[in-house]
Amino acid sequence: MNISPPPKVAALLVILHDELIVKVLTFLEVKSLMRMRCVCKSWKTLMSDPVFVKMHLKKQSTRMTHLLALLAHKAKGSGDCRAVPISRLLETTSNSITFTDNDPYYQFNYQDAGRIVGSCNGLVCLQGLSSNSEYHEYSLSFWNPSTRKKSETLVSFRYYGNKYNMCKFAFGYDNSTDTYKVVVLCLKWDNNRLVTTAARVFTLGDSVWRDINFPLVYAWDGVYLKNSINWFARRRFYCHMKNLTIEQLVIISFDLGTETHKQFMLSRWYDEELHIPRKLSLTLSVLMDCICFSYDIKGTHFVIWQMKEFGDDESWVQFLKISYRNLQLDCKFRNLEPRYIPEYIVCPLCVSENGDKLIFAINHTDQAIVYNLRDNRVNRIKSTNQIPWFNAKGYVESLVPTS
After folding, report:
1. Burial degree of 118 (CB within 10 A; 0-12, 13-18, 19+)
2. What confidence tens digit (pLDDT) does each residue in 209-234 have?
3. Which of the four pLDDT bands, split at 50, 70 and 90, describes residue 308?
4. SS3 sequence, 276-308?
């Protein structure tokens, strides 16, 4: 029997056009792209190309791995800057999280880093501070955990005045000019009275601070959302804290493109008495891409209001109302009897994708709380290092350069 030989199998050579390769690469996570830089010189060049960086950021914006950028103190004046996956915190069943040095991808050692100013498009703005009897010396640098790049100190800011004078920094992105900006509010006091609120802006890539117009208000730390920096502010800055009402509070929104500001009123539909304890319990945050403000009610509950449509102060809805008892912030936690008046400020850091879990920071503690809305279960997150959770900022992965 004659058996014919099998047909020859031709090798298939797949040639991908450059445009298709670029499109495929935009779907990959940053960590994978960083490993693939060694494939060829053209790919290494592509990873730092501004057009590709923007394409990748836009493609990944809806499905990025969200993290928290935080400081972990090891000893006086030293520690780690880290970016921790939020999913790791939400899914943990343990009351303690151990940070190890086995994977240095999302960390670096720092000396005298004071706080995290903010995070935007994968860039984290870090602030250092040194003081003497004459002035405060602030330094700013930028860090991208995903690319493992940290800038040198790009800008410094010196502010003269007494210890009661302070500067509040905020960080954000101006999409109209494709630039990153730092805004600083300098509050000057005289005899317990606010005298001036000077405001300046610094654009990454420039070398000078520019003065901008800003109302005379006492402002809290600012948060970034939708091309703007937003601050909680007291319109009647001379009003005693015990007499402060919600009508006297506004949100000052500074547009990074036009460099002008406007004011948003807070919710007019609240029916609870605003309670101001010894330490002010008002916070401003961004949850689920919405501006939120939170405060204490009569020392028994913690409330979060959410602006559903940014800029529309008629769109406020009550997002959450939680008993301090459910958060386990009771007399056993603070050694107080018998009321549940919070000694610490509670600040929401982030919420899970399905909205059933929140992570709260507690001021002046090294603990954070994971609260499950479905069953009121609380997990306390602890660490072997001291972590000021109140200063943690949300972070998303990107290829954006640090300078």
Report:
1. buried
2. 888 888 777 777 889 999 999 998 87
3. very high
4. CCCCCCCEEEEECCEEEEEEEECCCEEEEEEEC
The H or E element spanning position 42 is helix 41-47
Return the amino acid letter for 277. Answer: P
Q: Give the distance from CA 212 to its chain's centroid.
A: 24
Per-residue confidence (pLDDT) for residue 227, from 0 to 100 = 93
Contact 303, 318 (CB under 8 A): yes
Secondary structure (3-state) at 260: strand
Residue 230's pLDDT is 94
All domains of the chain in start order, with CATH: 16-63 (no CATH), 64-396 (2.120.10.30)
Distance of CA 262 to the CA centre of its chain: 22
What is the token pair recorded at 229? Answer: 């920096």
Phi-psi region of 132 (alpha: psi -120 to 50; beta: other; left: phi over 0): beta
Averaged pLDDT, 188-198: 66
* Closest alpha carbon to 253 in 209, 284, 282, 207: 284
Residue 293 near residue 283 (C-beta atoms within 8 A): yes
pTM across the whole model = 0.83
Query: Which CA distances in Å does 314 have to 75, 264, 265, 310, 318?
Result: 48, 9, 8, 10, 12
Residue with tokens 């309670």: 275
pLDDT range class, residue 161, cuts 50, 70, 90: low
User: Tokens 């390769």, residue?
Assistant: 21
